[in-house]
Predict the structure of Carbon-monoxide dehydrogenase large subunit.
Amino acid sequence: MSNRLDGPVKVTGRAKYGADHSFPGMVHGYIVLSTIAHGEIEAMDVTAAKTAPGVLGVYSPFDPLKLHTPDSMFGKTWVPLQNREVTYYGQPIGFVVAETFEQARDAAMLVEVSYRQRPVLTSLEDGLAAAEEAPVSWDGSPAALEVLAPDVESIEDALAASPVVVEATYTTATQNHAAMEPHSAVAVWDSDGLTIYSGNQGADLQAAELAAALGVEASSVRAVNPFVGGAFGGKARTSAPAFLAAAAARDLGRPVKAVLTREQVFTATAGRAATVQKIALGADTDGTLIALRHDSWCSTPVDRSFVERTSHGTSREWYATQNLAISQKIVPLHVPPTTFMRAPGEAPGSFALESAIDELAVALEMDPIELRLRNNSTAPPGKDLQWSSKHLDECFRIGAARFGWANRSPRGRTDGDWLVGMGTATAMFPALRFPATVEITLHADDTAVVATSGADPGTGLLTVLSLVGAESLDIAPERVTPRLGDSALPPGGLSGGSTATASAGSAIVIAAAQVIDDLLALASSPGAPFDGLEVSYADGRVLADGRSMTFGELLRAVNRPSISATGSSGPGEEVTKHSFSSFGAQFCEVRVHRWTREIRVSRMLGVFDAGRIINEKTARSQIMGGMIWGVSAALHEGLEIEENGRLANGDFAGYLIPVNADIPEVDVHFVEYPDTLHNAVGAKGLGEIGTVGMAAAVANAVANATGIRVRKLPIQIEDLLEE
Ligand code: MOS
């Protein structure tokens, strides 16, 4: 198992994140946030702030830094200070720049804001009556869709005709990504343009957004993000500090650093939507699903910029059923923006669906694994495209054996004062890939460089680049230097959607074939060591006629320092031939204290089919992190939004996330079936699937232990009090 290449610099504190960069003459910006959730800013008195010690600039909607709204693959990205509208509590409304961070912060406190307030709606429950149909999805699917058997008129008929029906409503909480590295930026302008040091999920995408916002050529923005302290979807778009630091640095002619405080991260970035989901399952007495209805509502900011597609991400594809109806509605609220967060759609969606499946198993008095296997799909319902490779049944079989599922009783067991239960759930996440370009350079010292702009937000992509590069060039990984996180490199696209290994890996395979072709052409060219011969390549060497030379020796012989080629790849014909997904089986054991109702997770196991595993260490840590996040969603995390829109727990004191004492040993196992129908490398995504299903597995274990079915997240002690 090879190690993470960036491990040593990270654990010794030598890795330089965005805000770790400093430059001569650099000054500091501090963002001012709104203290109402809805209204218009009538006035901002900045007199005291402007004359405070060290202050260089105070920007506001009345004295803005001109920024245009960028349009990207994610849609339009909001830019701060361009108007006086406030639509959530904690919205960036000002930016104070001073010689030091403390001076900027002190001056920001002196800004006096007066508002004309408007009515506020912050509760998803209260907003349900005003729900709207969600817009058409990025993949072209409408908000509501139905698949019905030929002789069936409606999903209600199919449910009515089902011998066994379970129906329930599930709710999930608003979450914040809470990445270790707060959103930040250091912006430096020179005669070539802007260089920005800011953690993000795709350097070229951030450079393009900033260029559009600043109204400059794309070529005059360079985005650097060598290390990223967690992103999870929350750094896919350019952040408020990056827009403001870039614009202020241009205005002041000084490098500007802006770092959100931890409290500011909770509102001035974007998080996960709250959801309400109604599910009805109809089955035959042998467990065969007859009908599945999944209606979902999610919170969205008032600009309707993001939809948490829970039913689309789960029920649409997960089970073989003759009759299916899903819908997605949005509820615009005066709450901080929502965006992609690890398994958007699938994470909250799987809590509802996989709880409902467990409830159906109870109603049928059937083992929940057997019920799932009985309804295993070979293709998404209503689609002809079969899964390219699906080994979910094996995940469940191996998982059941490894976890001791046979010892589970339908009513849990007791151990002294503890009620012990086991739960399971399915996990799925689509296998996708996006366009990516990689450059490979072979050097005369027999080393190679594999370079793409991209980002490694902690996933291990840097290590994966070196491994796939080495394999494609047929040399040892130690001879390959991976480069990432700089928009000056070829466009690597997004570290998001669990796509980076498949996207960059496919491009590496193409780039490697090209550079080897070019090397062989060079080797056999006139005057070269293999002039006119049939040459081949193996083991990092050029061979012909019983002779061989390493690529470095050959380059030296022809006086070339290096040879490079680029390769590009993107989703292609494969999407017309198969459906693609990663799969997994989640297992969890909980202990609930008989008297205090304290809930402890005592064992966890996830068994995953994610295609080929390139690097077991980074893959395991991705999955493990996701599973822990599932426990967090189940038992800890949830933003409490007060009626006026203020977050009651928007900091690390009040926003609970699990610590080591909350998490037992996490067992992760992979069944390895390379999926070469999806891409040449055979790897499917595993960044997001680890969290999918785990919250349901916890809730199902709690139900098994206590007999109490909790249909809301997070599950709290008071939810387990008996009447
Ligand atoms: Mo992920 S939510 O695509 O970073």
Notes: The mean pLDDT is 97. The pocket of dioxothiomolybdenum(VI) ion is lined by residues 201, 231-233, 236, 340-342, 344, 496-497, 688 (CB under 6 Å).
